């Protein structure tokens, strides 16, 4: 989640851990969810020793990329053949286990902020990190079915990090044609709805401001058409908010938005956000927005 005073965002949330003793976060698992084929192992920092990994080259520590392999005439005939899509599932399931790591300071393109936060959760303890990763997996499967290659900033929900600046770099280095940062908000309990966060020009992202805004409009339209989540009634205007203090948007060199899919402290939103059926609807809506953005020109 990446909101203002009442939102937990990287470096500014009321859920930001300041000491190991204050950081106990439930590590949600995504057990039982369908796994797309050919998923590469995660390479995020983990509080527990990692399982043995295949002897394939991996990116640097605290990172995880997962480009899909495509090829052949069947793939070439699909609408997103030859396209690369970046997905950043915000936070990570074990961020609370390593406060020293997530509290380190990084440069976000305008100012210093912390590496990451734990994210928010529902009143019942369902974590934002788990939610974000579930949506990312569903979306990855949908995009691969359309022929796209997919770059993921993390490929499990039981690690720590990577830092938000590194997440931006993973997607930039993957030469994505478009990217989405997936989050849920931690707003006031009375507040409902989604907000699409769009970048403000700051140098690195100058060339993708217009395209990011067009993609943001596609995401907003798809959310309204394909899900029952309304526009936020407490944050942004007509479901859109411009932000200049988030590394993922400040440092992007590809068209990108961050979507707060709903407000986890709100009971109505929480009942939707924790539903596997609604999570699949969200992924389908994002897939529709990406298809619209990449094929309409």
Give an overview of the whole structure.
With 297 residues, the chain is α/β, with parallel strands linked by helices. It has one domain (65-295): Zn-dependent exopeptidases (Aminopeptidase). Helix content is 29%, strand content 14%. The chain contains 8 helices and 8 strands. The protein has a 6-stranded mixed β-sheet with strand order 4-1-5-8-6-7, with helices on both faces. Strand 2 (105-107) and strand 3 form a beta hairpin. Helix 3 packs across helix 8 and helix 5 (209-226) packs across helix 8 (276-295). The radius of gyration is 17 Å and the shape is globular.
Search tags:
single chain; 297 residues; alpha/beta; 6-stranded mixed beta sheet; 8 helices; 8 strands; globular
Brief overview:
The chain is built from 8 helices and 8 strands; from the N terminus they run αβαββαβαββαβαβαα. It is of the alpha/beta class.
């Amino acid at each position: 989640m990446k909101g203002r005073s009442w939102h937990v965002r990287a470096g500014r949330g009321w859920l930001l851990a300041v000491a190991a003793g204050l950081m106990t976060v439930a590590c949600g698992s995504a057990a039982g969810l369908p796994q797309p084929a050919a998923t590469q192992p995660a390479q995020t920092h983990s509080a527990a020793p990692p399982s043995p990994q295949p002897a394939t080259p991996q990116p640097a520590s605290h990172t995880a990329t997962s480009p899909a392999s495509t090829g052949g005439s069947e793939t070439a005939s699909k609408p997103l053949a030859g396209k690369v899509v970046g997905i950043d599932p915000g936070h990570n399931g074990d961020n609370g286990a390593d406060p020293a790591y997530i509290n380190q300071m990084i440069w976000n393109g305008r100012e210093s902020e912390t590496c990451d936060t734990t994210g928010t959760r529902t009143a019942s303890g369902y974590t934002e990190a788990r939610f974000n990763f579930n949506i990312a997996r569903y979306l990855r499967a949908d995009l691969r079915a359309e022929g796209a290659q997919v770059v993921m900033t993390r490929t499990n929900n039981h690690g720590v990090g990577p830092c938000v600046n590194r997440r931006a770099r993973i997607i930039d280095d993957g030469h994505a044609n478009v990217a989405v940062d997936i989050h849920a908000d931690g707003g006031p309990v009375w507040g409902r709805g989604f907000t699409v966060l769009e970048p403000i020009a700051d140098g690195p992202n100058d060339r993708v401001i217009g395209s990011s805004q067009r993609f943001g409009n596609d995401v907003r339209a798809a959310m309204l058409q394909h899900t029952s989540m309304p526009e936020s009634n407490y944050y942004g205007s007509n479901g859109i908010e411009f932000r200049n203090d988030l590394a993922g948007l400040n440092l992007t060199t590809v068209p990108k938005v961050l979507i707060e899919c709903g407000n986890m402290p709100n009971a109505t939103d929480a009942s939707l956000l924790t539903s596997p059926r609604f999570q699949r609807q969200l992924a389908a809506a994002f897939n529709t927005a990406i298809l619209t953005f990449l094929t309409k020109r």
